[in-house]
Amino acid sequence: MSRHGTVRLGVPALVVALLVGGCGTPRSGDLGPAPSAPPTSTPPADRPEPTPTPVAEPTPPPTTRAPGPSAAASTGARRPDLVTIELWYVRAGRLVPTRRTRPATVATSRLALTELAAGPSPAEAATGMTTVLPAGVEVTRIADGVATLRVPSAGDPVTRRLREAQVVWTLTQFPTVRQVRLDGAASVDRADYTDLLPPIVVTGPVIGERVAAPLVVTGTADVFEATVSVRVLDSAGREVATGFGTASCGSGCRGGYRVQVGWRTTREQKGTIEVYEVSARDGSRINTTAVPVILTAGD
Description:
Blueprint: H1 3-21, E1 64-65, E2 82-91, E3 94-103, H2 108-118, H3 122-125, E4 139-143, E5 146-149, H4 157-171, E6 179-182, E7 200-204, E8 210-211, E9 215-221, E10 227-233, E11 239-246, E12 255-261, E13 269-278, E14 285-295
């Protein structure tokens, strides 16, 4: 075939190649960073649970959002949007966090205060968690990053301050709330109640959560040399894994920590995640926070 004939055949071939290439599978995009708080999984039913005139509130992005709605294949029912919120309860006179996943709502702060007043789940209550916030407390206004509301002043000063701290730490998880104004007083924020935190706070996992190895344990701590230790206990109380990490601040200041641990177990079972400080005096475990969970099998 002549050189000119080759050129005439090459043009259609090039067009076909371009059309086929245009039908390839698109590449996946970057999903971006994970939510600030990991989703809470629902434990099995027979095991511990994880556990002025009012105005419409702006819709703050939730701590964690579940996947968007989808149509069920058999019924065509729409799956509701969910929101995961952080709740700060009281244990031994200190603030401790947990989470709830509920149907999404535009009044997210109202939902949070309702859940806060409802109190801990049975599994959470078994660890000593309680609430001192009565039902009926609602945000009346959110403007310029300040949430305004009235909180009952009944009770002794210690209880009243714990009640205020529960409200402030719970509401300021939302981006639209930086401070809280209680009963017309000056605005306050989390820094005004940090003395009510225990030396070690565990934000994940939460009580009753079903966890798999490797597990990332997160929270904040104010401990000696900023060293945070973790151990995993099986249903018989045997130690199956240990780990440690360093908080971003310590020995007189509070910092965030993140410790990863793994374990091997042949069956799903109840377990406990213990987060503690090693005593500088005698090496014993002190300031321990225990989180009952469900350990999944892994090798």
